[in-house]
Amino acid sequence: MICSSPMNEAVLIRLHSLGDVVLAQPAATHLSKSSKVNFVTLEKYLPVVDRMPGDIEAVPYSSDAGLFELRRIIHKIAPEILIDLQCNFATRMATKGMRVSGKFRMNRKLRHEILGGSSDIMPLRSSEFLGVTGLNDDIDPVLERRNFSNNDRLRIGIVVGGRWRLKSIPDSVISEVSRLFIDLHNAEVILLGDEKDRAEAFETAASVGRESVKVRAGDGGTGNLIERIETMDLLISPDSGPAHLAKALGIPVLVVFTSTSPVLGFWRQEYAGNYMVNGLKCRPCHRHGGKACPTGTEMCRRGIVPHSLVSQAIELLQV
């Protein structure tokens, strides 16, 4: 157990990715109960840290600056407690010779076995992060919600595209799901995503053929994404960062698992918002989602039934 006085300075490092920064919140907030936490992360994730409860200050780091800049940041703060939740080559070199209070070490052997077909499951990443700070507990991430919808219509957000193609929701599915929400539930559909997904989002919106679908993909950075999500009634997302944001903000989220799975430890297996095509023994096939299907069928994506997806989403709204 890490013990400290209220005035201690702590540095917690989690540079990327979006989902992992969200999952680090319980660890940061626990640490803030006895220390001022300086959460070092990439600049684009500062708005996430800003929403974390507790005495937590977001400290920007640019990946272009290199490990010496990271080392300079740590030296300037001179923390009594140093937690490395990234624990990659850059952070290990930047903290070399320093007293590191805790490091996150992922069980890569277990992950490899799961990807190879083992029936085991990875521990929840948020609980593993929390354990590094000395608290063995099971706490879901929470972010401060500051905005609410003032719209009488049902607002549905859908995440388009993504870095890993096999982990994304097919455009044709998004189009049909959008039409079903608009036609059957009088909903307003907002398409979200990164800047590189913007063109795809506009093509998908055009294929819907309804005025009630809007494109907000690439509309600002992470801060704008958070503000968009927190005014939704429900978010439909692949297994990715926006889904973690929504759940932490208290927004119902339907997580569409294609080539990945909750067994990888990023989502609770019993979460009511998990959606996937049943009966696929090949899932998960890649730790990130992958770009090519090992079986050549892509049944994890092609087998998605829009009507069943919408039905589960409506059930989630009624919980």
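The record above closes out task 2.4. Task 2.5 opens with a second protein, given below.
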Amino acid sequence: MFGHSTSGIVAATLWLLIAFSVVSWTLIVMKGWLQFRLSRQNSAFTGTFWNARNLSDAEGVAQQAQGPLAQLCRTGFAALREIGMDGANSLQNSGDKQDVLERRLRAEVQKELHKLESGLMVLASIGSTAPFVGLFGTVWGIMHALQDISSTGSAGLDVVAGPIGEALIATAIGIATAIPAVLAYNYGLRQVRLYAADLEAFANDFLHLALKSGFTLK
């Protein structure tokens, strides 16, 4: 694929970069579809939730909906029910009702954010290491070309052009692999921050609703 004069190390480097690229684009497609789906789920849920007549109806909406906001809402309702149950005393539910609910909501926000952040570290790692992997392949390929020059005793273009050209391909592929990974990581990180703001805003709204209702679903 890369020519008979390409050393095994350069060929292995190129295949590694191709594997990086496949992993990167797989994550980009999967994360893109996930973020699109979650955005639609959150939008549908919030529209239905805020049209509910009371907390009891809103709980029914949350039970049927999907998405991070719906899951956060279900966690809030579960906490309210546990707080209101007799004999539900536990370390998890100990303390002021507002503090307990706020703690449970905060924990769920962090849990949902961890799900959204999955895969971003892989994209960051590929984006930061792929150029150096490609550069390593290029340097090794040039060393291999210099050895060919030394063994043949000729530095003509026909001797060095092929091996050096093949070696430079490693740098090109490394850069081509890194650019989409870095762009996808930055975009994904921004989306996670937007989701974090939405989750925290909804958690605050839910807390205010619970305060208004006296921490009861009646």
